[in-house]
Every structure is written in C-alpha cells, then in structure tokens.
Amino acid sequence: MPTIAIILNGEGLREQQLRSVVDQAEIIIAADGGANYCVQHKIHPHYIIGDLDSIHVAHEKLLPDSEVIRVDDQYSTDLEKAMKLAETLHGDRWLILNATGKRTDHTLANILFLAQKSKEIDLQIIDNYGRLRFLWPGQHTLQLSAGHTVSFLALQAIRNLTLQGFQYPLSQQNFEPFFVGISNVVTQNPCTVSFDAGLLLMYEVDQRA
C-alpha cells in the first residue's frame, strides 16, 4: 500500500527536509493553500482538495496534471478533507507536512485530528526540527540511534510509563493530569516505551536541525 504525503498551508519545510520527505511518497495530496507551496517548490501533487479559498487561481493552471477536488463544506478543515481523501486511497503510511507554525489554533486542531486518526494509520507530522508521532497504550520497540534526542508529552494521565534505553529512564510511573519529558536522549538501540493508559506524543528531534 502506498505512502501518502499530505501538504498543508502552515510553516513550510526547508528544501532539504522537504525533498527527503516527498521522495518517500507515492501519492501527494495538497490541502487547499498547500498547492501554493507545491508550485513554489516545483512539486506536482496528484490531488488538490479543499474549498479552494486559499489557492491562487493561477496556481491551478500551473498544476494541470493535478486532480482538483472542490469541497465547500465549511464545517470541516482542509486537513479533514485531505484525510477523507487519503482514506479512499488506502495508504498505510501518512506523512503530514506544514501542519504546524503560523496560526496556533490551526496547529492544535491539526494535532488533535491526527492524534485520533493515528489509532488506525501509521502517521507522522514533520516540521523543520523533527517529527511527531503518537503512541497508544502497549509496548513500542523503537529503532533510534544512540545520541538521538526525543521528547515525550501527554495531554492526559499516563499509567505505568516505562522508558528503557534512555538517558532518563522510567519504570512503571504514573503521571497526571499530564506528562512532560523534554529532551531525553537515546542510549541504546533498540529502545522501548510502554504504558497502560493514555496517549503519548513522541517528538524525534532532527539531528540536522
């Protein structure tokens, strides 16, 4: 099944970071104003979707090979529209670009929508400084090189959190009403994260940033 890149209209990735992500995707979806970014960086999305209130009309003409899908529903965001399209394309991995930066309300909304969807799809939010993943209860074995910086955060209570293979390990610790563990460091590969309840956000810092 294909890897799908969804390009939004937030803070744009730097060129080197952008190319490394786009090259992994078999299908590219531009969500509304994300099409402007595609034109600027000579990316040809397979689909452009949204109410098209942010896309420059001239850009539609510059992307003649893209299928343009107009959805006028004002009760869903551009990301939600792109997610619904991605579901029909049956990708098993989503790479989300430009989902953060600019307006904080948009950033938070994007994170909430994607957190919920991560129950079903392997997805990552990629920005200029790293990538955000969502971990659900259970044990996770991570292939991260020693010296890699990782932060863990939770917006709710976390039960029996164990971190092994990190500079600051934990063993079956409970945290409430939230948890913040900024800038931990991997000491062995693989490393493991396990917990029984809650939703953990894991931010892997790009070592090149």
Labels describing this entry:
5 helices, Jelly Rolls, elongated, alpha/beta, Rossmann fold, ten-stranded mixed beta sheet, four-stranded antiparallel beta sheet, single chain, 209 residues
How do the strands of the widest beta sheet line up side by side? 4-3-2-1-5-6-7-14-9-12
Query: Mean pLDDT, nearest integer?
Result: 93
H/E topology pattern: EHEHEHEHEHEEEEEEEEE
Q: What is the number of beta strands?
A: 14
Which architecture name of the largest domain does CATH use?
Answer: 3-Layer(aba) Sandwich
Q: Which residues form runs of ≥5 with pLDDT under 50?
A: none
What percent of residues are in strands?
35-45%
CATH class descriptor of the largest domain: Alpha Beta
Number of helices: 5
Helix content: 10-25%
Q: Briefly note the structural class of the backbone.
A: alpha/beta
Domain count: the total is: 2
Shape: elongated
The first-to-last residue Cα distance is: 31 Å
CATH topology of the largest domain: Rossmann fold
Name the CATH superfamily assignment of the largest domain.
Answer: Thiamin pyrophosphokinase, catalytic domain
Largest sheet: 10 strands, mixed
